[in-house]
Amino acid sequence: MTNNYSPSFLRWYAIYPVKKGKFEANKRWIKDKLEKREVEIINHVVQSKKYDTDWKLGRIPYASTYLNQHRYEDEISGCYREPETDNCVPVHPIPRVPRKLYTPEAMAIKNEMVTWARKANTPEGRTKIRQLQKQLDDLYDNTQKMGDIINGKGKE
Questions:
Q1: What is d(CA 80, CA 87) in angstroms, rounded to the nearest whole number?
Q2: For residue range 113-131, what is the model confidence (pLDDT) as tens digits?
Q3: C-alpha span between 67 and 10 (Å, rounded)
Q4: How far is CA 129 from CA 83, 91, 110, in A?
Q5: What share of the chain is helix, strand, coil (3-state, %, to 5)?
């Protein structure tokens, strides 16, 4: 039995990173008439490959799952969409706060970093994120030093 794949499906499938579920994906492509949304879906795949944290970790759905679950409508983690252009703008990862630093001060710094992450592509945003990261690092270093003093490992 030969399969009739549309040219638009084949263009999408050519760039899709996981080559599994092709037959089922093609059935969904035809059923949902996705050739009308080809450019949008291909753009989503390209942006996901580039920015999505799950995709970068290798957690990419099979082609059939991607289409059956309408994953092309999902938000891409690791970026946010500019309202005017719908472009994916990368967001710098926000560091995890070590358990020792679950203090109101540390959490306030992290929350401010989340706010500034949307402006990470601007010079002002990058500068502010670096300043906040330094504050978090300094807070962590001070906490480590205090822990060493309490445990008798460090000097006062």
A1: 8
A2: 877 776 766 778 778 878 8
A3: 14
A4: 22, 11, 10
A5: 60, 5, 35
